[in-house]
Design a protein that fits this description.
This protein has 199 residues and is α+β, with helices and mostly antiparallel strands. 20% of the residues lie in helices and 26% in strands.
Amino acid sequence: MELERGDDTERSAAATKRPESSDSLCAYARTSSPSAFTSSTAVSAAATAENLAGSVSGYGKPYDHSVDSEAAARAWLDAWDRAWRAKDETQLARVYADDAVFRSHPDRDPQPPVDYARSAFADEGDDLELWWGEPLVAGDRAAVEWWAALTESGEPVTLGGTSWLTFGDDGRVVEQHDYWTITPGRAKPWKGWGTSSAE
């Protein structure tokens, strides 16, 4: 995405092996290893999903099919973390609705998210450093900050941005639009990035 944390700016641990079979985002979140993230603030989707036991829809409350946007946001974050590190866009399919509207930048037309990721990953080197902010959630929407230092088209760059997500009742993304900036050279986030810079 033209678009980890630990000790605020420490790199996240390598992604763990995803489950071989899973028919829903909820099942995926419950079986994902929390070790996919070592941040003190960016908790993995699995930890949140443990609180969803007994729900009807997986992401809703008992007798209520409304989405649990925090769990859905963490599942989305986990999928992108795994996919970006492995350069494997196929890992993103499960977190998007089939007809999801995806805009990678305000100046770009919508395109399928998996197609976008495939193109972006192909242009990047193998030296990715990646950080995620704590999701901010309201209703069926969430905003997630991300920060990446990498090589793109043979040049070192830093990408910083935010993805705005809207979820359907099943927890999959039905709409996403991103805002981001790109800067020459490699840089890490500042202390407190992704949560609060206040001491």
